[in-house]
Structures are given as structure tokens and as C-alpha cells.
Amino acid sequence: MASPHRVQSVDRTVDVLEALADAGGAARTKDLAATIELPIATVHRILTTLTARGLVLQLADRSYSLGPRLVRLGAVAAHQVGSEAQPVLAELAETLGETVNLAFFTRDSMTYVAQAEAARSMRMFTEVGRRVPLYNTGVGKAVLATFPDDEVRALLSQPAPGSAPKPDVPAVLAEIARARERGYAVDDEEQEIGVRCLAVAVEGGPAPAGLSVSGPTSRLVPDSFAEVAQALRSTAANLADGWRRAG
């Protein structure tokens, strides 16, 4: 039974936004209505209101997409979640002796939302808020590994952020298959020469997320991968549990 304190119109509005996100960020009214099992007229009224508030955009082909005002809301939510995760990341960074990062999937890229630095004179640094490609980062590949291959192909067909080159789709798919098999993804000097990164996916947050550890190739060696990946998975499970309780 639904809670008597819930507002049906708000529930339906959230359903529309989530259906848009699940559709890849854009969809037609009739398709959204079919997905969430509401009358087309009801969905149209919701979309019209959201469009007026800038939360949704109407495209030239009359379909709708997620709007720019959601970017600010998402950024604030990501920052808040990143702040709450900071003690957990700091503990992992101390355990591994390397820098730990948390990043969220943001439609066509990954955005770093939190970092805990290693207590070493030589350590890795990634700017919080930086957007990086999906296909050549540990966090990106870890998240892509949770998606079906058809969805991965669609994501890889979009332009990468910044001046990143176009990905080699078959090679990325093969790398993602390896990530699924071993339970973690690897960025082996793909972002920075001399830097290696291991990452796993994290569930339960406001968006698909990746948790990674980065270090010099001289320290983060293949013989340590299994142990490091286990520590990452344990921390990812703790983060996911915390997010589910908070939700």
C-alpha cells in the first residue's frame, strides 16, 4: 500500500524523469507513457511543466530530453554524496597507500566527485569535478561493464568529452568483457604515462558510480591486482550499503 503522505503527482513526475534517463536521456511522449503505464495526456502535462522549468527540453523531432537545470541539481547531489563518502575513501587510501577516487556516470562521461590522497610524497591527483571519457579510464570501464553491450556501443558512439580521440569500439568491448570476467577494470597508462588504475562499479548512489585506486606502475603492479581489487570491492559494498540506508 502506498504511503498516505506521498504525493501522486510528484511520484509520476519522478517516474517520467527516471524513464527519460533509462531511455538514454531522450524519448517520445508515447514511449514514456508506455514505459511507466500512464495515459499519454498525463505524461504530456508533466513534460510541459518540466519543460517550462528547464528540467526537460523539447527537441526538434518533438521528443523530449533531460534539461540543463538537472545538471546543477545532479552536481550538488554528487558533491553531497562525495562528501559523505570521504571517510570511507580515506580509510581505503590509508590501507592501500595509494590515492582513491569516486566518480559518477554522467551520460557521456565520468565525473570525479571525491578523492582521498595517499600519504606519500609521490602520489596521484585528480581534480574533483573533472570529466573523463568512459572508454579509457578505470572508473568508466568499470561502469560500462555493468551495462549490456548494445548500450555500451550506443554510449561509445557519442562524442567523448574534451579532445579525447574516438574509441576503438571492438577493443573497448573486449576490455569490458575482461573486466566482467575478473571483477575489476584496469586503466594501464591510458590516461597518464606511468600511472595505473584499478576500478570497480558501485551501486546504490544517485547515478552509476566507479571506485578506483591510482598509483605509479612501479607500485601498482599486476601481482597486487587481486588484493587491491578485493579491497575495492569491499569498500564499494560499504558505500552501496550506506547509500541504500540513506535512501
Can you summarize this structure?
The protein has 247 residues and is an alpha+beta fold. The chain is built from 8 helices and 9 strands. It is globular.
Report on this structure.
The chain has 247 residues and is α+β, with helices and mostly antiparallel strands. It is built from 8 helices and 9 strands. The protein folds into 2 domains: 8-67, Winged helix-like DNA-binding domain superfamily/Winged helix DNA-binding domain (Arc Repressor Mutant, subunit A); 71-246, Beta-Lactamase. The protein has helices at 8-22, 29-36, 40-52, 69-96, 138-144, 149-156, 169-182, 225-246; strands at residues 26-27, 56-58, 64-66, 99-105, 110-116, 131-132, 185-188, 195-202, 209-216. The strands form 2 sheets. A 6-stranded antiparallel β-sheet has the order 6-5-4-9-8-7. The protein has a 3-stranded antiparallel β-sheet with strand order 1-3-2. Helix 1 crosses helix 2 and helix 2 crosses helix 3 (40-52). The protein is globular. This is IclR family transcriptional regulator. Pfam families: HTH_IclR, IclR_C. Residues 69-245 form the IclR-ED domain. InterPro entries: GAF-like_dom_sf, HTH_MetabolicPath_Reg, Tscrpt_reg_IclR_C, Tscrpt_reg_IclR_N, WH-like_DNA-bd_sf, WH_DNA-bd_sf.
